[in-house]
Amino acid sequence: MVKQTVRILADGTIDFPPEWVKKLNIGVLPTQIMIEDREKPYKSYVDLTAEEFFEKLSKVKEIPTTAVPKQGDIYKMYEEALKDFDSLIVIAHSSKISGSYNIALQVSKMFDGKDITVIDSQTITVMEGMLVSEAAKMAQAGASKDEIIKRLNQLIPHTHGVCIMKSLDYLRKGGRISFAKQVIGNLANFRPVIAVEDGLVKNIGRVKGFDKGLELLKIRVPDILRNRKTDLVIIIHSLMPTEAKELKEFILSQENNKPNQVEVFLIGPVLGTHMGPNCLGIGWIGDYRTDWFQ
């Protein structure tokens, strides 16, 4: 049996369900979620699941807020992991979006002489998760730290995700767009096309109504599948299981370049705080052109 010497850790924005975390044998640094009581934060995926978050979200008056994992929590996870593994690779979401990468790096410097590498995934949510999945599978197969890091560096520039939003409310409440833009967008029935580019969440286009957005995703599925570099495609949604299932079935109906693995995951508490319900997207590792969605 191959001995695993490298442990993969990731922050709590990967939006992978618990069974995937267990299967991949990864550690998750819990991001903090503040819902109404700012003094008593929840820990993402520790004491607050994605399902529980959206249930609470439907009942609160104020939009929740998020914070990076606590330094003490990260320290404990490093300490525990180093008891059983020679090296740690910590994959954080984009440093241009959050301070998770920086705090993970700071804590790693407290372990003098220990082999801890912190990597900026330059992305978020399941796209970060797909990188974690690739790294974890290599680690389980006995790959060295250097082999895993080399592979991650090859894949990071090709990791992409695109999302269509049915409502602009949470973008406005979270300060991502102005009230005026929200009103104009709602009146015109425009819906933003959101993507991660250069480590930042950007509005790369817009569509007239959500149904047109779903149609646009389907139109681009053949391009995505033809240009992918791994066999995993993930559909992510916030309380849109019917539409997510429809998109999955469409992908699996393709005659050419059909992937062996298409998963549907519910958006987690961190991204859910900023996007709210009624969001649908697709993540993949492969080549991509911005004009696909313009």
Quaternary structure classification: single chain
Portion in helices? 25-40%
SS field, number of helical segments: 11
How do the strands line up in the largest sheet?
10-9-8-13-11-12
The share of residues in extended strands comes to 15-25%
Low-confidence parts: none
Can you tell me the overall shape? globular
Mean pLDDT: 90
**What is the CA–CA distance across the termini?**
49 Å
Please trace the helix and strand order, writing H or E for each element.
Answer: EHEEEHEHEHEHHEHHEEHEHEHE
The tally of beta strands, per DSSP, is 13
Q: Rounded to an integer, what's the Rg over CA atoms?
A: 19 Å
Summarize the structure.
This protein has 11 helices and 13 strands.
